[in-house]
Amino acid sequence: MIRGLAYSEPPFFIFYGTGEDMKQETVNRTPEAGTAKNGNLGALAFQIFCALIFLGMIGMVFANAMLRYCFNSGYPPSEEWARFLFIYITFFGAIEAFYYKKHIAVDMVLDLLHGVSKKTVIIQAHLLTIFALIVLLQGGVVQTLQSLDSYAVATHINMSIIYCTLPIMAAAAILLQLRDLLNVLRTPASEFKREEKDPGSIAAEVLAESGHGADNPTEIKQN
Fold first, then answer.
1. pLDDT at 176 exceeding the cut of 70
2. Which of 8, 11, 170, 187 has the maximum number of C-beta atoms within 10 A of its C-beta?
3. In which domain, by residue range, is 39 found?
């Protein structure tokens, strides 16, 4: 099964009041709840930024196609602009995927594990991901520095502005992976349960995501 992974932190306690009036509240902290409470504005601004990049890329391609079709002449820099915007949306979109844990994750083996073994595998996965991101960060910085004197042919944009998206994405992803790694380390091994899903529920989930599922998942199980 391929899906995004999400981990929850153990509950923590808030104490307030004095004497007999002291109360104790348990607050379940999850990455989703934390980002919803503290980063709504920033996340919305980032999504708008990515949406504008995506719309700009589509607009450039569409406008150039219309110019060629209607006036038999296009705008040469538009192809280069569209290519650069595609690079931007690729790497900044990757940051959002890491932020919301929407990146592709193959967890067929992970779902069979539980307890200490599952926690160990998750920690190793995070460490390997961080190592790969460090390699990307180092390579991106070198590529950006080497392109300080390079300019695009049609748009005359300094290529370091384009190549800097790679180290920016790698640095942001490293921070997000470190956050998730700390959450995993603080979570007791007993919280890592084995995922047990019957074939009927898996089929219903896949069909629901594709938009072709039945309104009632029990219909699939009965069939």
1. yes
2. 170
3. 31-104
Question: In the numeric block, which tokens belong to residue 173?
Answer: 């992803």
In this structure, what are the phi and psi dihedrals at residue 3, rounded to the nearest 5 degrees?
-160, 175
Per the structure, the count of domains in the chain is 2
What spatial distance separates the first Cα and last Cα of the chain, rounded to whole Å? Answer: 22
Residue 221 amino acid letter: K
**Residue 71 pLDDT class (50, 70, 90 cuts):** confident
**What secondary structure does DSSP assign to 6-69, as a single string?**
---PPPEEEEESSGGG-EEEEE---HHHHHHHHSHHHHHHHHHHHHHHHHHHHHHHHHHHHHHH
The torsion angles phi and psi of 179, rounded to 5 degrees, stand at: -60, -45
- For residue 155, the SS3 value is coil
Is residue 16 domain-resident? no
Torsion of CA 25, 31, 37, 38, to 10 degrees: 120
Domain assignment present for 125: yes
Q: What angle do CA 32, 179, 86 make, to 5 degrees?
A: 75
Would residue 186 count as lying in a domain? Answer: yes
Render pLDDT for 181-199 as a digit per residue (tens, 0 to 9).
999 999 998 888 877 666 5
